[in-house]
Design goal:
With 155 residues, this protein is an all-alpha fold. It contains nine helices and no strands. The model has no long low-confidence stretch (mean pLDDT 95).
Length: 155
């Protein structure tokens, strides 16, 4: 399908954006809307970007999971929430979560909680545990793992 002149300009702008950093379909639809592209044209442009491999939601999700885990030390709950906020479907989110190695995930949680434990001021052990639980939850780790980690750290 051929794009008209305005669609082609928007396509090239979006393609340049996708070339600089991994983007998902929703990111590009938002950008196209901000640029004043109507919905029908935006869908055509998006289809062409997907067809030419500028956009791949599965590739985006895998990259997002790796980066947020490795650099931001986020847990699976927070990562999955952010992916769903970007309108990535559940199947793709589940597949992307397999990028996280279970042992690395556990070690990241332990290291995060140990580091936080050093800097916490708490009146008693109960208060300390509560603060560590809330911290680990805010990073997106699962409650059962948090409690196991605390049992190991606060022996």
């Amino acid at each position: 399908m051929e794009l008209n002149r305005e669609q082609t300009q928007a396509f090239h702008r979006a393609a340049a954006l996708c070339s600089r950093a991994e983007k998902c379909s929703n990111d590009i639809l938002v950008k196209l809307s901000q640029w004043g592209v109507n919905e029908d044209d935006a869908e055509l442009i998006l289809d062409r970007l997907i067809e030419e491999k500028y956009i791949d939601d599965e590739r985006f999700a895998r990259s997002f999971v790796r980066d947020k885990f490795r650099f931001n030390k986020w847990g699976k709950t927070k990562i999955a929430y952010q992916l769903r906020a970007n309108r990535i479907n559940s199947t793709t989110v589940s597949a992307a979560m397999e990028e996280i190695d279970g042992d690395d995930y556990w070690e990241a949680l332990i290291d995060l909680v140990k580091e936080k434990n050093k800097n916490i001021k708490a009146a008693n052990q109960y208060d300390r545990k509560g603060k560590l639980v809330r911290f680990a939850q805010s990073r997106g780790f699962e409650m059962d793992l948090i409690y196991m980690a605390l049992d190991e750290i606060l022996k």
